[in-house]
Design goal:
The chain is of the alpha/beta class. Helices cover 43% and strands 11% of the residues. It has an 8-stranded parallel β-sheet with strand order 1-8-7-6-5-4-3-2. Helix 3 (100-113) links the parallel strand 3 and strand 4 (117-120). Helix 9 packs antiparallel against helix 10 (244-258). The termini are far apart.
Amino acid sequence: MPARRAAPGKRRASVTTAEWGGIFPAVTTQMHEDQSIDFDATAAHLEALIDSGCSALIMCGSLGENQALLPSEKRELVRLAISVSSGRTPVLSGVAENSTAAAAEYARDMEKLGAGGLMLLPAMVYKSDPRETLHHFRTVAAASGLPIIIYNNPLGYGVDITPSMLDELSSTPTLVAIKESCGDTRRITDIYNCVGDRYRIFTGVDDLMLESVLLGAVGWIAGATLAFPKEGQYLWDLARAGRWDEARTLYRWFSPLLHLDIGVKFVQKLKLLVQECGYGREWVRAPRLTLAGAEREEVLAIIRDGLEKRPALPGAVG
């Protein structure tokens, strides 16, 4: 695959982890209909996301179909994103391997490639207990010098990284942030009460974004903003500026689309959303299949209603 370089333009330095926040899109892996990776479409989508003002890019997350990718494909996708970004925004990679050893090897490879950080999940398939989960995170963290976002999604992966476990991990310096996707915004306050501001807290659930900012989240690892990058950025800016009336109005329009980020078929739903907004195609890799029948029509109705009612955005939030 030929290297892809970003178009000439203003470059900006990578943020330090102490400044991590804002929107980190969880980028889809664009596919051809035959389920091979469409690198050109993925690169084009990355350009659109960078142009929207996102703070970083996350490749090979759950939405990027990490577990359906070959090891070589994951590395090639991260290499592509680093080339496209060309220093304009940091590139992180999800780490979702079946063993601690494989996750540690992947972390080392990401550091060699020049990734800006990792988003680390518990080991896949096996449902580890707290002692095993802590060992996994400490071991992978020790494998590289890259900063790490801890990804907590007990609803999806059956392992809950609780505030008390975060306290136990707080002595590991490269564990710098948490993507909180337990589905209960009370967890954000519990984390602050347990460990203070030790970690940068990101919300990982699209339709809890506004509530999460109110409670102290400093970042949003986002899904639906892949199709509405400028609207997502504007909503984020309104919330962080405390312009709650305007934020609520935009959020109410956005919410039916944000709900697509929830459930077993969130990848298929969001890829269909991306397609309908002109940023890619809906093709996914088996065992996932594209939506069909009444289920697909129901999602399309939500998308088309959102597009019909899409609000005009005023100037930048100052």
